[in-house]
Structures are given as structure tokens and as C-alpha cells.
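Morning - 2-phosphoglycolic acid inputs below, output right after.
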Amino acid sequence: MKKLMAANWKMYKTRAQAASYARDLVGLVGDRLPDDREILIIPPFTAITAVAEILASTPGYSVGAQNFYPAEEGAFTGEISPSMLNDLGCAYALTGHSERRHVMGEADEFVAEKTKFGLNSGLKIILCIGETIEQRKAGKVREVLERQLGIGLGGIAKSTSPDVLAIAYEPVWAIGTGEVAGPEQILEAHADVRKILSGIMDKGDRMRILYGGSVKPGNCAEIINLDNVDGVLVGGASLQAESFSQIILAGI
Ligand code: PGA
């Protein structure tokens, strides 16, 4: 599987800013994207079309959504369905992002429902998991990962393909804080995720496990080459095309 280099823009960028970033990024990466890497841009809903229009014809690039509601259509004011995202050219969507869990209050069971519905609707899903600092200090990292993966993947077929499901390990204490997990912490957590995933899914040994949490141009080369790290999910440092292009090309 190709390493997935994903930019989560969160609630940033107008359409014009998004379009100019997409053009800049394609120019900055040029023909240097190695065959074993793919790029995913995850804009806010309002900028998806602007980005998709530019990237649709560029090999190696995909567009994703940060969120969706698990229903085909209906009376769900303010929500957006997977089929609407498919219609915009989104290939991927996130579920379980820490900000959805902790700011919007999404529980494991709802994350599971979204993961299942998104996959059944033809979206590729990146299920995000990770412990808080309190859970880490209490020695509960493995327990948290087991719970989030066990419930989060509970409703989906064991035979689900690695092409359509990836996991992002994002320790909550490392997201947007500038405090990146050290190589030992990443190796240990990713090895745990690999073991748990392989116990749940038939092809868990081949599913991609991304690292997320304060990834920057200066630390990506080390992270991306660690065992069981099959990509990165980048917030803050993905907001400038120059910085994200360096992350995309790090360590090659
Ligand atoms: P960060 O965010 O890179 O700003 O820490 C990562 C994420 O939220 O996916």
C-alpha cells in the first residue's frame, strides 16, 4: 500500500485560498511524488469543490471530507451525507477525529455507526483513535486503543479491504500542541494498533496506520520511516502548501 500523506485543514480556508493552495501544492511537488506515496487533502466542506476541481485530473492526489452524518438523506438540519460527498468528488472521510470526540462529544458507538455507514456508501474511511494525556499517565494507552478499535470497527465486515479502511493513531495530547510523540512512543502504539487490528480484521496486517499529532517538515522524515507507520495526518503544518510539500516529500 502507498503511504498516505493527508492534510486535515480543519476549519480553515476560503474557496479562493483553497484553490490557490491546491495549485501551489501541485507545482511544489511537481514530478517528485514517489510511486509509493499518495496525497490526500481534507478541506472544510465549503472548499471541497474548489480543491477537487484542481486535483481531480492530477494523479496521486485525492480529496476527502472531515465529517459526515450517517444517513442517506433526511431531516438532519446542518448535516451532510456520504452520497453528497461522493457527488463532490470526495474519495475519503475521517471518523473519530479527536476534535469530534472531545469538542462535539461523539461517542465510540456513534463513531462506529459513521464508520460502517461511510464504508457502505463507498467512502474510504480513516478512523482516528488515540489516548488523552491522563489515560497515558494512567498506563491505559493499550486499553483505550483496544476499546476505540473494538467498538469503532465493531459493525463492519471482517473482510473489509485495506484499500478502503485506514487507522490514524493521534494521541490527543500531541494534536495542535507542538508536542509530538517520540519515536519510541509511536513505535509502541503503532505496534499495539497493528496487533489489535490484525485480531479484528482479516487483513489488519496490511491496513495503513497513519500517525498524527504535530507532524512538521522537521520531524516527518523520522516518523514516516518508522515500522508500522504508513502515512501521516497533518493539521497545522498542512495549512501552507510549502510546508505540506516538504512533509509529503520527507525522508525519501
Ligand atoms: P496537528 O493536527 O498536526 O495540528 O497536531 C493533527 C490532526 O488533528 O489531525
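Note: Residues 77 and 203 are 37 Å apart (CA to CA).

O.
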